[in-house]
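hey m, so remember when u said the tokens were messed up on ur end? i reran from scratch. heres the input so u can diff it against urs
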Amino acid sequence: MRDGVTVVTLNRPARLNALETAYGRALRRARVDQHVRVVVVTGSGDAFYAGADTAVLDAIDSAGGTKGVLDSRSRYLRSLCLARFHGRASRLR
């Protein structure tokens, strides 16, 4: 974090940055850190992101967990959340 701005980088370019549980953990950390004023979400590689990783969803489901761990938690942030788009993108609903 620098000057109240934290950057969350989706870093799974081989899977087009498909969401997995690390994304939810990163946003939870940003949500509870009172010094964070802005969260910038970006992706590595050729795509911004491709939505939820179905292999991760299946593993969570098989383990008896909840698929909500991949839910977009940006709406619960106390800070502004910006997306730095490039390449292909999808959305998680």
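this time it looks ok to me. DSSP finds two helices and five strands in the chain. if urs says something different then somethings off w ur setup not the seq
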